[in-house]
UniProtKB/TrEMBL annotation:
Keywords: Cell membrane, Membrane, Transmembrane, Transmembrane helix, Transport. Pfam families: SSF (PF00474). PANTHER family: SODIUM/PROLINE SYMPORTER-RELATED, SODIUM_PANTOTHENATE SYMPORTER. The gene is panF. Its main location: membrane. One of its GO terms (molecular function) is pantothenate transmembrane transporter activity. The chain crosses the membrane at residues 26-44, 56-74, 94-114, 142-161, 204-225, 237-257, 395-414, 435-460, 486-515, 535-555, 561-582, 589-608, 628-647. It is found in: Membrane. InterPro entries: Na/Glc_symporter_sf (IPR038377), Na/solute_symporter (IPR001734), Na/solute_symporter_CS (IPR018212), Sodium:Solute_Symporter (IPR050277). GO terms for cellular component: plasma membrane. It is a multi-pass membrane protein. Belongs to the sodium:solute symporter (SSF) (TC 2.A.21) family. This is Sodium/pantothenate symporter.
């Protein structure tokens, strides 16, 4: 279990869980990790026998049905699918089924709309990367460099979010493992004099970040695209098995789906501390003998647990410290449970939870949700628009639900990471079979996730303050309850696999942009394969290391970053790619207008949201529609207008991509 109260110097563990479960889970998880490195080593052997660039970044365009389908699905099922998405389900309830519903048609839109044509054009031009395709299709180095800049800009944000997700997942799995706790204590002492590494950074999180980061950077750098594909296949299988195992466990331990829905209908949202002020004041019964630390996840009650009166119940959301000799700490950030059934459930298992005793609570200054607590909004967790801490309209009004339907279905088509996969499949038959395979796979992943984490609201109440950790927390809790702690390693491997499969793809996407699109295509076209190989390894390593360093102090909300990046990439790339594949009249100026117009409009709505709503991740919504709708619409319009106002492209360029038959198709 988490540390509750510790000295700032030594951080001794005061509360420990039974180590049998965590140790067994760690062993099974380590077996999975070793398998990843074995696949990377086998992949590296392929690099010695084939063209390095094509093999390292594109797998020599030879992916079959299962490899193509599972690497496509695993890359799309990122850390957002197994950390951010469960967090949203847990926080807002059943409405998330509508939010994610369109993901079932993503493969039809993405693979069916642009898959075959993109693969043809990439083969004809010999393109290895997405900027390669754009540059060669329009014969414009400037447009290619613009595409590189946007990819690096957006993917850098997403890499940091994914590193955070992987570290949180690993941290939850390792809680209670003696070796992990002692190593984290040693790391805390080692970095105590380094402000960037010690100020506000949990040593457990930092240790997990280092382990996750080094592992994924090494195997991606060493193995290249085929390492990514083969591990994606394994990770895709692990993900669906993990979800299928968790589903019956969650339903049974929540008392059945009917009982879960009835309990959720009674739930009201928690009250929470405002970011800039507020919270509660804690007063110890006697002065602290030494510096004491109250960790995130600690439960606090204002009455003795044995009291017959239902007490006020709080859960700490940000660590606080009480200096030696002091008795009071102000503005401790907490959430307060407001549903009687949730309070009763936590108190009944007080022996398994981290409760802080010997304190009294005063100066309670908390905020209620903007939507979900009023009597007229009862049942907000089971009906739309769902509870929301900030919006009086709820989490998902109908107009926003429509926006998200288009966002998942259409933005998936505009993701460069998906486009790279579409450039790598073997033939048309592979593409056709993969569309059905991925659609079925997504159905087996996403709908069960909605059920599992609605059950999590009943099983593990009070985790809104750290909801990004709900997936691994549920995995550990469900398996320990049935006496199979070792199974947690496999279940936690599911979200961990999702993050790894996304990180490795993004690493290759960014490194290929630097090495292929910047260095080879613009600086040194005659670079030897040895030089390209060395730079590819170096770029992958440097990009991964930089993302890991930034993730030491990451942004708070993973899913918000993923939504911003996904919608921004779609607004920037979908129109230029669709025009490039299907419109003979479009020229470089039109593609540039589409790219800049989509990016600019999308960014403008987020910047406007920062000034109007006080947060970059609360964008301005024109006519209540998400920025992706405005960005996509503006991108297509800008591209069309600029194309019509400028000269047609050279006929030889049009003939090359629209009339020449693809050999072997």
């Amino acid at each position: 279990m988490k540390v509750l109260l510790a000295t700032s110097q030594s951080l001794p563990l005061l509360f420990a869980a039974d180590e049998t479960g965590p140790d067994a889970a760690l062993i099974s998880f380590m077996i999975y990790t070793v398998a990843v490195f074995v696949l990377a080593a086998l992949s590296n052997q392929l690099l010695k026998s084939k063209s390095f660039l094509s093999e390292y970044f594109l797998g020599s365009r030879g992916l079959g049905v299962w490899a193509f389908a599972l690497t496509f699905a695993a890359t799309s099922s990122s850390g957002g699918s197994f950390t951010g998405f469960p967090s949203k389900i847990y926080s807002h309830g059943w409405i998330l089924a509508l939010w994610i519903g369109s993901y079932m048609v993503v493969p039809i839109c993405t693979m069916g709309l642009i898959g075959k044509r993109l693969n043809q054009i990439a083969r004809r031009s010999g393109s290895i990367t997405v900027p390669d395709v754009i540059r060669d299709r329009f014969h414009s180095p400037i447009l290619g460099l613009m595409a590189v800049s946007l990819i690096v800009f957006f993917m850098s944000f997403n890499l940091v979010a994914q590193f955070k997700a992987g570290s949180l997942i690993l941290q939850t799995l390792l809680d209670g493992v003696a070796v992990f706790e002692s190593t984290a204590d040693g790391l805390a002492q080692a970095v105590s004099g380094i402000p960037f590494l010690s100020d506000g950074v949990s040593p457990e999180y930092l240790l997990c970040l280092l382990v996750f980061g080094i592992a994924v950077i090494v195997y991606t750098t060493y193995g290249g695209f085929h390492a990514v594909v083969w591990t994606d296949v394994m990770q895709g299988i692990v993900m669906v098995i993990g979800v299928i195992i968790m589903l019956p466990l969650a339903i049974s331990q929540a008392g059945g789906l009917e009982n879960t829905t009835k309990l959720m209908a009674k739930m009201t949202p928690p009250r929470y501390s405002a970011a800039d002020k507020g919270g509660i004041t804690l007063t110890l019964d006697k002065p602290a003998a030494e510096d004491m630390r109250i960790e995130v996840g600690t439960w606090i009650t204002d009455k003795p647990i044995e009291s017959s009166k239902v007490p006020l119940l709080f859960r700490v959301t940000a660590a606080s410290e009480i200096p030696a000799g002091k008795t009071t700490v102000d503005e401790v950030k907490v959430i307060q449970l407001t549903t009687l059934e949730d309070i009763d459930r936590i108190l009944k298992r007080k022996e398994q939870e981290n409760f802080l005793s010997g304190v009294s609570v005063s100066n309670i200054d908390l905020v209620q949700y903007a939507y979900g607590e009023e009597a007229s909004q009862q049942g907000a967790y089971v009906v739309g628009p769902g509870p929301s801490p900030a919006s009086n309209n709820g989490f998902l009004p109908l107009s926003l639900a429509i926006s998200f339907f288009f966002m998942w279905a259409i933005s998936g088509t505009g993701q460069p990471a998906n486009m790279v996969r579409l450039m790598a499949f073997r033939d048309t038959k592979t593409l056709q079979r993969s569309i059905c395979t991925v659609a079925i796979y997504y159905t087996l992943i996403y709908f069960p996730l909605v059920v599992i984490f609605c059950c999590a609201r009943v099983i593990l109440p009070g985790m809104e303050g750290e909801s990004d950790r709900i997936m691994p927390a549920m995995a550990v809790y469900l398996t320990e309850n049935i006496g199979m702690g070792w199974l947690a390693g496999l279940l936690v491997a599911a979200p961990f696999a999702a993050v790894m499969s996304t990180v490795d793809s993004f690493l290759l996407l960014i490194s290929s942009a630097w090495v292929r699109d910047v260095y080879q295509r613009n600086i040194n076209p005659e670079a030897s394969e040895k030089t390209i190989k060395m730079l590819s390894y170096l770029a992958t390593f440097v990009v991964g290391t930089a993302a890991m360093i930034v993730a030491i102090n990451p942004p708070q909300f993973l899913q918000d970053i993923i939504v911003y990046v996904g919608s921004g990439l779609a607004a920037s790339f979908l129109a230029p790619i669709v025009y490039a594949l299907y419109w003979r009249r479009v020229n470089a100026a039109g593609a540039m207008g589409a790219m800049v117009g989509g990016f600019g409009l999308h960014l403008a709505m987020y910047v406007t949201g920062y000034f109007e709503n006080g947060s970059f991740f609360k964008p301005y919504q024109l006519f209540d529609f998400d920025p992706i709708i405005v960005g996509l619409f503006g991108s297509f319009i800008c591209g069309f207008i600029v194309t019509k106002l400028t000269a047609p492209p050279p006929q030889e360029l049009v003939h090359k991509f629209f009339y020449k038959e693809k050999a072997g198709s």
